[in-house]
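I am writing to request your help with a piece of structural work I have in hand. The matter concerns a single protein, recorded as an amino acid sequence and a row of backbone structure tokens. Could you please explain, in whatever detail you think fit, how the structure tokens follow from the sequence? Thank you for your consideration; the sequence and its tokens are set out here:
>
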Amino acid sequence: MTSPNKPLSIAFVSTMAGTAWGGSEELWHGTAAAMRRQGHRVGVSVYEWPETPREVRELAELGCEMDFRPRKKNIFGRMVERRFKNSTGLGIPEASFKWLKAMAPDLVLISQGFPLEGIAWMLACRKLGIRYASVIQAAGEVWWPDDALLADLREAYAGAAGLYFVSKANHRLMEMQCGMSFANAAVVSNPWKVNVTEVLPWPAENGFVELACVGRMDPRAKGQDIVLAVLAQDKWRSRPVRLNFYGGGPCKQSIQRLAEMMDLKNVRFHGQVASIEEIWANNHALVLPSRYEGLPLVIVEGMLCGRIIITTDIAGNAEYLTDGVNGFVASAPAPALLDEAMERAWEARSNWQSMGVKAREDVLGFLPADPFAAFQEKLVNLC
């Protein structure tokens, strides 16, 4: 990619406040760091945490112009943030508005975990006459905008120079929810954390079929309760299957208590692990019964490591999958439907290794060589 003749000025705004750091932050963070190292002027606005994440400290050390905002308590507070007026007439903090006005960047990139979180920032940019774009990491029917938000949402999205989604399904859903087409929209890839140049060996046989459920411990999104309900059936109890949970999150204890209540002896909790390859060195397949998503990195990373995927047809979960070829897809997040997909997978388990090879080949055909460079090119073009 060719850099512009003179340095650009770009501000990156993260609206994520549910946790200090997550996979949804990697794309904007890596792009911001790369642009700063190239000599561009970079601003960063994030919520303030008792302990600043390492990635945010890195950006500050690179010389990014930082804005730390007081954190709202929950997503609903953030969604309606703009309704709490201040002297700016908008819902972003007054200090952040002044920071944005003083920086006057060529472009503001607003990274949203959910599609309603960034409205206040978009409208602030419009008020200041600053060009802006947004990357939307997840969407779902549960966030269908009510009439009180719809006019502002349409105005905010219509005024964006670019709208970036991580799945085609979320792009379509947001157009339906806004009742308008987005001519300036595109699908982008989040960065993965596995080595794509090496093929990971198939796990050594230990007498069990090892299934991994990887992701935030939050059934509202990831549907861990659904797979537990499937495994509680007599037929699955009698099979040599183990389910391995990886990750932390707000509902870890409730998921553990549910597994105990169901008396599931074949479920293990591993917490956070150091590397993705460690997971796939010990597991044969990913089970991800999501209720809402963007396009989960765990699916991409599992396929890159040569493992089959068993998941629900939610958002972008199945966009890289061909049912029965490189994975198995349940039509909706319900125990009976996930059981049907898992049963088909079980019957084909002798083919999992060759299907995993196919999964790796297929996903490599979809991914950009460098997701940060590809995203940076889009932002530079908007400037």
